[in-house]
Amino acid sequence: MGFDSRKTGDERTQVSFEFFPPKDDKAEEALWKSIKRLEPLNPQFVSVTYGAGGSTRERTHGTVKRIRNETALEPAAHLTCVGASKAETDEIIRAYWDAGIRHIVALRGDMPELGAPYEPHPEGYQSTPDLIDGIKKIADFEVSVSAYPEKHPESASLEADIELLKRKIEAGADRAITQFVFDTDRHAEFLEKARAAGIDAPIVPGIMPTTNFKGIKRMAGRCGASVPEWLADYYVGLDEDLPTRKLISAYVATEQVNTLRGYGFDRFHFYTLNQADLTFAICHVLGLRPKHATVAEPA
């Protein structure tokens, strides 16, 4: 399938950005620099993550409230099933609504102990579809959920994952955001299988910058994502060369998005890692510009 890569983002592409809540004052300053840098790109929404076992609950809540109050962005708060009763989770949902938050990223979540098997709270929501149903009973939130083109590491099969995704959509989810995948063919294959299973909601590829390649490999190992040999080869000998790693990361992500656009995807979710420059540069190349920016006419 061909496409014109010169088309502007307004004509073709929508993006969303993901941040994580700051751990201290210095990190908060860096986060807000990133948010303000990316705000002029007019993303569809920006999401704020939730730590394992709900460990960043208060910081997540504070960050999405500040985004709502101090920017023109549409904030989405992550919410998990782990570590809380239904009553406690419902209280959080109502607090988000009262704060003007209208979008939740509903997730099963991970246990606080790294690698520990999932165990639902005995009085809590037992699964993501269960959580979505609870959210919708409280208020008419927009809901995003996760998807795994290479299979969730705890899932029995990719088919089981797709069946779970279908249940999430049937419970009221509006879109699925994928785990990062570097083999773009996997996204196309996953989309085809999801459509064959009757899932018609948007499936949005998650785009992960690879600047910190060692960190990405660790993250990939925990979430079941594969790291192609060609990608690993790009970073050989660059452990102490951050400027070059940044350039390669921008190239890899831009090529991935352009390839996915060729497959028919037109929405992308960038895992910013609270660093704006790389995401801004990629979006600029893709034709997503602040409203005041102009596109040069061909010579």
Compact summary:
The protein has helices spanning 9-12, 25-38, 57-70, 86-98, 128-138, 158-171, 184-196, 213-223, 229-234, 242-262, 276-285; strands at residues 14-19, 46-48, 75-80, 103-107, 142-147, 175-178, 203-204, 206-207, 267-271. Helix 2 (25-38) packs parallel to helix 11 and helix 5 (128-138) packs parallel to helix 6 (158-171). It is of the alpha/beta class.
If you had to describe this structure to a student in words, what would you say it looks like?
The protein is of the alpha/beta class and 299 residues long. It has a single domain (9-285), classed as TIM Barrel (Alpha-Beta Barrel). Helix content is 44%, strand content 13%. The chain has helices at residues 9-12, 25-38, 57-70, 86-98, 128-138, 158-171, 184-196, 213-223, 229-234, 242-262, 276-285; strands at residues 14-19, 46-48, 75-80, 103-107, 142-147, 175-178, 203-204, 206-207, 267-271. A 9-stranded parallel beta sheet has the order 7-6-5-4-3-2-1-9-8. Strand 1 (14-19), helix 2 (25-38) and strand 2 form a beta-alpha-beta unit. Helix 2 runs parallel beside helix 11 (276-285), helix 5 runs parallel beside helix 6 and helix 10 packs across helix 11. The longest helix has 21 residues, at 242-262.
